Amino acid sequence: MEKRTQEMSEEKKVLIFAGSSISHEDASKVLDATYWPPISRGDLDRAMEQGYNIIGIIDGIFFSRAAVAHKEVIRAMKGGATIVGGCSMGALRASELDVHGMIGVGKVYEWYRDGVIEDDDEVAVATYPDTFEPASSPMVNIRETLRSAFHTGILSEEECTSITLLAKRTHYSERSYFGITKEAHREGILPEERSKELLKFCTENECDVKRDDALLVLEKVRQIINE
């Protein structure tokens, strides 16, 4: 029995694509797996060649290089891989390919699946090239944080809507709470003191939807490993 259990364990080779929504260091504290940088075109084929058969897609490349193609994901699943997606690129591809067997988890996946959001830029961020850490704030986080500010009473519903639209008009690589609140004051949506109050709230109480969803991907992969 012990030998059989060991053989079954060795059959499960786990790979996670991440780095922007959650660092490899933090992710490895949750799940013991191999971690590669955000996924781009060709990485899934390489992973399959190396024998990985349980794959979690969290982060991916959007605009600087070719993104992972739908046919790559389908090819990997037909080759026997179980693929879980959520949070960022993983959520986007899972919402498009769950009908083909890709497993989607998390709030962002559900938003894409249900048509609440549609654009790639909702989860895209500028990153530092060496570490893949985010250098801008993702739109999905901004949406939830501004909604939280509304529910807390810091913003009216109209102000929340106006500032959300302002953030959406901003290029994904330039989105930040500092820039958004400053522009909200410049456009006359908020007076200066309230824009400063909003900035303080956002920086201290950000709703990090992407990190929460990244953790859900790791937990789902853990469940699959233990099945």
From TrEMBL:
<protein>
    <recommendedName>
        <fullName>TfuA-like core domain-containing protein</fullName>
    </recommendedName>
</protein>
<dbReference type="Pfam" id="PF07812">
    <property type="entry name" value="TfuA"/>
</dbReference>
<dbReference type="InterPro" id="IPR012924">
    <property type="entry name" value="TfuA_core"/>
</dbReference>
<feature type="domain" description="TfuA-like core">
    <location>
        <begin position="59"/>
        <end position="176"/>
    </location>
</feature>
